[in-house]
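Try this one yourself first.
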């Protein structure tokens, strides 16, 4: 839950900064702060950087770039509460990908109904913002699977360091293009620094250690109330006002997610990669010798 509080507070602060500097600059600064924290302690060792070990970290970097850029732009267009709720469909559908239970089918329909209520009944909704939220949802699902694989393949936070470098390389050119139109000040710079610490350095580092010790399914259960946390910070920091129907929609999505994931019993020998991610138990103690990818 600490990761949810940290990342959603950072997202709310990003909602304040984006009108001044734009989403690409915010994401680029996030990754720069992340690397400034990681590189002094977790510099990747060249001997371990074979492509067999490295490709999951590279893929994770791509997922981070897509997830952060699309989500922040969605926050700008839709508001934090709505964008975070739609984005949560990613880990929810990932958790249910191999299920055959009627309860899970019902939960999917309930979550879908919640999203329809969220986007279709109270006021006009930005279609591009919804599309970006769905892209962020898919990227978040990929992030969960890849973070777990990277955590097992590379020691410490070396995999996350590589992923952060890849993400920055992808985002930086876009940020430089939008930089001339940005409005910088000392307060904006401090805000960007806080966003980087709250939204990247703290939660991603925690996720890497957490996903080394628990299954991705349990991680998804813990994060099932993320949309509620996002709506609270959207209200406190951004002054967002959600109507009764939208609040009901967020509750429906969280309830469907919590019910479906908490009652799921996946097979430990699923042939699908996402099934394996939710079924394979994590080691009870961190390994001192890197494990082959």
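Now uncover the answer:
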């Amino acid at each position: 839950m600490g990761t949810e509080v940290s990342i959603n507070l950072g997202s709310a602060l990003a909602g304040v900064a984006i009108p001044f500097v734009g989403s690409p600059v915010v994401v680029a600064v996030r990754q720069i702060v992340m690397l400034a924290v990681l590189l002094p302690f977790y510099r990747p060792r060249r001997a371990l950087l074979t492509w067999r070990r490295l490709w999951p970290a590279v893929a994770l970097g791509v997922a981070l770039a897509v997830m952060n850029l699309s989500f922040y732009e969605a926050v700008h267009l839709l508001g934090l509460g709505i964008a975070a709720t739609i984005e949560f469909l990613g880990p929810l559908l990932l958790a249910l990908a191999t299920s055959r239970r009627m309860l899970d089918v019902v939960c999917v329909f309930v979550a879908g109904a919640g999203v329809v209520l969220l986007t279709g009944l109270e006021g006009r909704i930005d279609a591009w913002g919804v599309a970006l939220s769905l892209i962020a949802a898919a990227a978040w699902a990929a992030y969960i699977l890849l973070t777990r694989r990277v955590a097992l393949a590379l020691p410490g936070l070396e995999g996350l360091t590589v992923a952060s470098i890849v993400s920055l390389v992808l985002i930086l050119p876009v940020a430089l293009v939008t930089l001339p139109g940005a409005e910088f000040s000392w307060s904006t710079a401090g805000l960007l620094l806080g966003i980087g610490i709250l939204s990247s350095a703290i939660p991603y580092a925690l996720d890497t250690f957490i996903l080394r010790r628990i299954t991705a399914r349990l991680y998804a259960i813990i994060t099932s109330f993320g949309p509620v946390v996002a709506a609270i910070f959207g209200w406190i920091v951004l002054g967002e006002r959600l109507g009764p129907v939208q609040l009901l929609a967020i509750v429906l999505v969280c309830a469907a997610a919590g019910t479906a994931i908490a009652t799921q019993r996946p097979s430990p020998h699923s042939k699908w990669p996402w099934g394996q991610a939710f079924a394979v138990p994590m080691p009870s103690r961190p390994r001192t010798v890197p494990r082959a990818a």
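Discussion: Residues 2-279 form one domain. The radius of gyration is 19 Å.
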